[in-house]
Amino acid sequence: MSENINDHANDAGSETVSFGYENVSPEEKTRRVGEVFTSVAKKYDIMNDAMSIGMHRGWKDRFVKRVKPQPGESILDMAGGTGDIAFRMADRGANITVADINQDMLDVGAERAMERAESAETGSLVFTCQNAEEVSFASGSFDAYTIVFGIRNVTYKVKALAEAYRVLRPGGRFYCMEFSTTEWSGFKEVYDVYSDLLLPRMGQMIAGDADSYRYLVESIRKFPKMAEFENMIRAAGFTNTKVESILGGAVAIHSGWKI
User: Fold this and answer.
1) Which of 99, 169, 209, 244 has its Cβ near the most Cβ atoms within 10 Å?
2) pTM summary value
3) Which residues fall within 8 angstroms of residue 35, CB to CB, at 6 or more apart?
4) Domain 3-257: which CATH class?
5) Contact of 43 with 62, CB cutoff 8 Å
6) 14 vs 106: CA distance, rounded Å
7) pLDDT tens sequence across 123-172
8) Confidence band for 10, pLDDT divided at 50, 70 and 90
């Protein structure tokens, strides 16, 4: 049985879930993921630049173009912590609720929001601590739901997808960008060596934390492949699902609609 199928069994309610390459209790995973992001919160955006050689900025611009935020609409940006995606969407006039399970990440985002020069055309920003598996908002509250580089850290992804579907209005759209497994031969081998050897060292040098970035690499390896995750999105009720591959699938943009 594949690791990904095992992950689906975990989502169905087994007693252990994966934390990187370890199997731990759901409570332990939630606690340890929280510790990871508390540790890296203040250096998170700097590390994103270092890890991706700045490419994450272009990926995020591309993602927001796909979302097409509209002035006045309400968007839930889950796992949006430091605000990178939220700021881009607010600049287009949308009203953004930035949600994250980690308060330290939200604090960094709120500090960045205070430093931004707002204009009359900029949409509103609200920061709130939320668990993606059980958000506090009423059903049908949002026009769009976004989650970027966050769903692989959720303990029960099926629950998070069900909540995304629930809080969207009919006609609402779901967009997720996540790391995946590249299908480019040659590049895959180079990417694996880079991930295993260099990323933890960068984490130690820049954020003073090699272990958190070692976990992030492992969490990417354990995440379902593109087609499999698209099936999970469809199983949650979304229609017209699509996958857009970047770097052969090293990064993927998933989308779907609530009809």
Assistant:
1) 99
2) 0.84
3) none
4) alpha beta
5) no
6) 30
7) 899 999 999 999 999 999 999 999 999 999 999 999 999 999 999 999 99
8) very low
